[in-house]
Please model this.
Amino acid sequence: MMEATISESVKLDPVFLQKAAGIIKMLGHPDRLRIVELLQTGEHCVSSIQEYMGLSQPITSQHLKQMRQRGLVSRHREGNKMMYFVANPLIFKLLTCLRDTQVNMGCDALSLLD
Amino acid sequence: MMEATISESVKLDPVFLQKAAGIIKMLGHPDRLRIVELLQTGEHCVSSIQEYMGLSQPITSQHLKQMRQRGLVSRHREGNKMMYFVANPLIFKLLTCLRDTQVNMGCDALSLLD
DNA sequence: GCAATGTATATTATTTTCACTATATATGAG
DNA sequence: CTCATATATAGTGAAAATAATATACATTGC
Model:
């Protein structure tokens, strides 16, 4: 099994970078970041996400819609309910980065410096 | 040497999550994402960043200021010039995620699905 | 069919971001 | 001190994000 060693010199393709920025933008909102953190554990319906987050139903739907449009999450119907789940492998990787950083450096790793 | 295995079950601390969202938000703009990609290779002054990016001087300064306020980058004076550099380890990790994703999955990995 | 539940959308007001122009500040050279 | 270079900030207007309320739509069970 080969692990690719990614050199720092790999340049991000302009198209890729553009799409990536769009995805990252979606994670730049605390609520949405927390939603994907929840969804990472498995699929959830809107009402359970809503309850978990303590958000209104429309706001919850809106966040999910935005993330769906950017390809972060996807959904399927299950009877009455819409089940949402993470649809992009990059999301898992990015969340792993965050957890890793929190575990290794603690909360202060992200403190403002200036 | 021990590599920490980060379980998916590590829950992100609310404070950490809040700060992380702030940092991630800064990367959610294509120009800023490209700027940190540049800075990752070493420090650069404003005018060289500006030239590389093809942005106006005020816009360049503004992006840098925002990122400085969030702790993504820092700077020091070198004579006439202000040298900017990446100040947060998380940035490197996130960029590595992106490069890794691009290399392993190509540009289409981030395509919209819905 | 109707009512109940779950989700999505429309509308609107507020706030925030973005990008531009003009101007101010700081350093170095002379 | 003066000028040139490099950077930062102020002020403005347009565009986008956010959040709230009201309403529409879809599915289930009767």
